[in-house]
Amino acid sequence: MVESSCTSEARPRTVNLRKAGNAGTDELIARCQPCYFFLPSLSVPLIFLPPAVHVQDGTDGAGGFGVSLSTVLAKRISGYEREFHHHRKEIAHVIIAQNYPPTKKRSCRTYPESGAGTVEYVIVLIVAVAIGAGLLGFGTKIAQQVNETGDTIGGWFGSGEDVFGAGSADQAETAFAVYSADDNSLDFYKRAEVPEVGDKFEFKTVTEVYTGFETGTYTLVETPTDRYGSSNAPWAAHQSQIETVTVVDTGIAPESVSVWFANMTNLKTVDVAKIDTSECRQMFDAFFRARKLKSLDLSSWDVSKTWNFNCMFQECHSLESINMKDWSVHASRSGMFGMFFDCPSLQSLDLSGFDFTSVVSANKMFGNCQSLSKVSLGSNWKWVIYDDGEGTNSYLPAPSSKYISGADGKWYSISTGKGYAPQDIPNNTADTYVASKSLLSK
After folding, report:
1. Quick one: which of 252, 272, 255 has its CA closest to 191?
2. Is residue 354 very low, low, confident or very high in pLDDT (cuts 50, 70, 90)?
3. More confident of the two residues 138 and 413
4. What span, in angstroms and rounded, lies between the C-alpha atoms of 254 and 233?
């Protein structure tokens, strides 16, 4: 017999089928029809409910299981609610006691003797196995979905196997550039896998792909209407459409960047800090006619082996500043011709790392730079006098009040405050000069 509480005063009515036989069984079924038809279909899920009722089938030592009948039946079998409430206490303590061994009371609950819970344990084991199998199948499905998603993302980056396009460590990397008409960008990469035209790469459509430029040397070429209207750089066909240039990856080491960005008349943004110029020999016409470009930061470039800077920034009409602070320039005899020629918006230059010891011609270097108001020179700077018959030379322009407030035609030394005409600025003297006396205090 099973007790429902710690006291013996509230003992429930017990139907003992061992004595009552079939009649007792019929009585139990008649009173418990809601349970009789409901439990078979919900027995597995109800195992996990609190064991408020202990119903046992005791054939040859078999065990039982607990279900919260008062909760489940009262809420889900509306047709039997009143009848169930009436018989609730009797149902909750029924013991199907046929051939079932006695139980002991422990800590306010009853527990079967050893071996009495076999059916309960078997059911729990079956359910556990079923859940485990379900989780295994679910996990396999998730793994398949992850693989499929990875393939899709890989396609976005131009590689179904390597989502980020970097390739494995033992694969040779190739320098390549991608022009995308999606945003008129020219981006440089160095990776194991090169995308193809039409691919989605770095979230953009690949319009053109270029390789081999690390060892190429390019020059300006004539067009029907312009002597210097184009070049033989790989991306020259899109030179007027390109608006942004970005070197995305490190390790790109060209032998020359001459005319790379020439005639890009709509170029507005340039990020080339990651390019390796340590073996670069020539930079002539690199930014020729980049007329909408306003600023350049080239401070990370190693130009120690570069000897030709001719016309590097010529006709950059909107260019206001160029960061070349850490440059160590050792130009050739004639490698500075027209370097900043016709940059009317250029305001300041730091040339303190320029060594002019070997230079014999730097003609037109600052021609038409009428807005230039601050220049820093190093101890190895010298003015190269060269008369080409047109009255041009390498001197700084004479400051004019038309472009610079307070200018009087002289350059003033920051260190001494003394004013100099362009041709009188000392050679081999490290100093900074401003184009107006009023700028000395700034």
Report:
1. 252
2. very high
3. 413
4. 13
